[in-house]
Amino acid sequence: MIQTITIIGAGNLATRLGTALYQAGLQIMQVYSRTEASAVALAKQLNCDFTVEINKICLDADLLIFAVKDDALEGLLGQLACNEKLIVHTAGSLPMSVLAGHSCNYGVFYPLQTFSKQREISFKSIPICIEASSPETLAKLKALASLLSNQVEEINSAQRQSLHLAAVFTCNFVNHFYYLGQQVVEESGVDFNLLKPLIVETAAKVMEVLPFDAQTGPAKRFDEAIINKHLKILEQQPELQEIYSFVSKSIFEAHKIPNK
Amino acid sequence: MIQTITIIGAGNLATRLGTALYQAGLQIMQVYSRTEASAVALAKQLNCDFTVEINKICLDADLLIFAVKDDALEGLLGQLACNEKLIVHTAGSLPMSVLAGHSCNYGVFYPLQTFSKQREISFKSIPICIEASSPETLAKLKALASLLSNQVEEINSAQRQSLHLAAVFTCNFVNHFYYLGQQVVEESGVDFNLLKPLIVETAAKVMEVLPFDAQTGPAKRFDEAIINKHLKILEQQPELQEIYSFVSKSIFEAHKIPNK
Known about the structure:
Two copies of one chain form a homodimer.
Chain A: E1 4-8, H1 12-23, E2 27-32, H2 36-45, E3 49-51, E4 63-66, H3 70-78, E5 83-89, E6 103-111, E7 128-132, H4 135-148, E8 152-154, H5 157-187, H6 196-208, H7 211-214, H8 224-233, H9 238-256
Parallel strand pairs in A: 1-2, 1-4, 2-3, 4-5, 5-6, 7-8
Antiparallel strand pairs in A: 6-7
Helix pairs in contact in A: 8-9
């Protein structure tokens, strides 16, 4: 059973996951970050030690969680002698195999959610996607994940990569469209708050209806008069205009295929 | 005071708005649609008469609500003698002035929401944007809107057009990205349901945090390794690949400007 954890990283994911683990009763042994301020802040929250030196990372924990940028992971691993320690990464787009040369017990612990340092979030409904190098390790990670969430899923590396890509579409891109919408209304002195009930309903709708069936608006019905008006409003913002055309075309193409 | 209403149109908006008005105690006199099946279905729900003939539209109601496609509105108005009847349209992108030649009492009644015929929705939190040809008409429309919603806003035609454009970004485009995300995961045999907590949290987050501050993901930090992996996965879907590049670039551009 996993009881003690070292967290490598102190960004959004490390902060939220570390906090959730700490609140679930796990003992966080140490936080590592190359940025001292981040390491200190998270260590304080998790009531633990911290280090900014790779060679001082605490390897005595039952589990080492790497929650760092993809391109930092290999460099860190290369400088640690993990040997038989249980190590996991938390990256959507890295296969589990990147850990294979560094320990004989390894896996992936990927909570599928958007995390910000300042925003507390319950892990109960967050799908935690796990993968492991052996059935024993899988069982250990499953038990740990189940302490945090009601939705623990066994997901292989290829599937996780798809999920990560889909998360970019359904979260990162979606959020950027909230941002663009805000730019549009604020330009004419209208409060962004007016759009909030629409944003909530748009998300709530696809909890019950497939996105294809939930689609509304001018692009779906190819209402050229409205589309042209909108493009005209965006005349001074060629980048927005181009995105508008592009996405409208994509919507129209998706919906003109009958019964798709 | 408005007590009786004729509804011209039987689409998504006409259906949801008509139902809300009916439930709020208004008497719907008649539904008009050129499609008989739609007219019949909505008239049945609203416990009223219907017609498919323009020259039989009931002009005796206190209010005529035009909830038809933008390009159908002028044609319909041209065939009716509204004279002094109170008429409103419900279109985001049409200025109020399109009604000016057809009656001396007119206005706009624009509920800012995504509507589907089958999905019941409470109007209480839907912003209803109103505009009117005179203070008296404005007061009447305000009173009517207040029966449905707690958020009645006086919005002029230019502002309404901005809101409509922003709604395309924050609802129609957002929903299409849910659809694209679904395509991505289903291609690798993963259940779209796994993305639902992420979709809900992405919307919930911007209720409290500005979209700019809520942004996460590879595009914001210009993580080229992940972006290139994602583009490679999308190799067989050039249209998706192009959208991915485009929106990622837009996110990166927005976030590289300090303190914007």
